[in-house]
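Researcher: Quick sanity check before group meeting.
Model: Go ahead. Protein one:
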Amino acid sequence: MRRFVLAVCALCMPAGAIWAHGSCAPTRIGVGQTAHFTLDKGRHKDYAVELAAGKYYVVWDLKRVDEKIGAIIAKARLLKSHGSIMNATLLDISDTDAAARVRNKLRVVKPFGARIRVRNEDQPLEVWMTIVAAEKMKWMPFAFGNGDIKPLGIGPSERAGRYLESNEWAYHSIKLPAGEYDVSLYFKAKGGNGTLIGSLERLDRYGFRVPGWKIHLLEIGEEARREKELTLAKPRTVIFRVLNRDRPVDYVIGIEKD
């Protein structure tokens, strides 16, 4: 996710730009507080926050209201307190999932009364938005449910798994030393042969997706297994998210030292 550097003297878009139309009085939010709201397609909501000079993260947890896997498309723009728009997108997501966590870093060079406009471009979304001072960034439990993190170990006797319904997900976490590992995802369907569609994503210690590492599983049958190498240059806490997109399955995640 790209970073956005805020300079109070930055040029603004014209006040008549589309994002500035139809705005309502913003809701106040403090740094470290979480705003929880729901947005229908094409709707937006404004929040006002006082920001001292420093670095911040803007964090979203999002969930489709229907809890089905589909489009999640939303964005946030940074405005001045009176509603004119700064010249960049603060945060955006365009994904296919039932729930997601995203963030972007914001640097403020002078104290600033900011206005953040969140807009939903697709199906109704439930949103949790938190503005966190960068030096206070820490693990936050997932707000959208199904967020319990289960342990995972190395070796055949430490494999972890359970049952997943369609459109359901689960999390597992492990602290790994530096090195190379083989990570595998196994699905066994309930009810015999049919489609098996799922994935295993790597997340960082804060629960944000690590780009470029994902196991995709797409098979027709009763069971399927895929694996991928994971290389760590230094010790890391690794969180895995397994997602089942089709019929109910039993799954197993395995890690072997390469």
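Researcher: Fine. The other one?
Model: Protein two, sequence then structure:
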Amino acid sequence: MPSTNNFMEARLGSAALEACGACGLETGVVMLKKRGPINGPEYNGPSLLQNPEARCEFCQFVGMWMAQEKHDPTTGGKVGASKIVERLEDGSEKLVAFVPFTEKEERDNNLADGTKFQFQHGMVLRAEREGKGLKLVEIIKEGT
């Protein structure tokens, strides 16, 4: 059977994961080819395809934050965001906060155990309750 690495030329029903059009992070959406030849070539290209119109949750937040803060990337630098989550008793995760930053800011930080890290766009950190506050305890997902 013929194959192609061009998603647009692939057969009906081909699938790939959608990537953010701004930063390239996975959006969690499965792109399913709804139009195309039934007997067309099998898709064997990248499993992650950038969609120019799609935005990941981090870029959506960054856009809102930039508008609220009237941030101009030409003078204030590029912006990214990490997020902090708390693991609930049922194993699910609850968003605690997004952490915006610019490329001009100091982004170095430490987990509660002293592990050094740098905030990166798309990074997910886990926090645990400590008294009335929270402490950062784990990097769940590295960013870019």
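Researcher: One line on it for the slide.
Model: The chain has two helices and eleven strands.
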